[in-house]
Amino acid sequence: MTNKITTNWIGGMQFESDNPSGKTVVMDTDVEGSTERFGLSPKAMMLSSLAGCSGLDVVSVLEKMKVDDYTFKMEVEGELTSEHPKYYHKVTVDYHFYGANLSESKINKAVSLSVDKYCGVMEMFRKFATVKTNIHLHAVNS
């Protein structure tokens, strides 16, 4: 399978990129002397892609396991190298689950399947970064 995108310069430091789904995203970066941003940073968007890829896997696996009484978020932190070209060399993915009766074994299995088997973005990150994952269960009274 091949994916193709088109990215157009729309002025200043802004670019708009399409996606095979037909959706678009605006990207930009910090401009000296300005605090205004119109889009997402390309490097930070890589971290969002990692979270999105793994999150889709986790939710899909939990759905197949009939787990549905939870909320879920991910926090991803990437450390850039200090020399150019700057890239993420250390990445930490924290999986946070909230619920009254969380199944630790099912959640651990779902995250493990994503991290070790299904998430292609995770595998790509491993080619250039050390990736650490943590699972946090937060009991919430129903």
From TrEMBL:
The residue range of the signal peptide is: none
Gene3D superfamilies per the record? 3.30.300.20
Q: Which InterPro entries match?
A: KH_dom-like_a/b, OsmC/Ohr_fam, OsmC/Ohrsf
Q: Which PANTHER family match?
A: PROTEIN YHFA
Q: What is this protein called?
A: OsmC family protein
Q: Which organism is it from?
A: Bizionia saleffrena
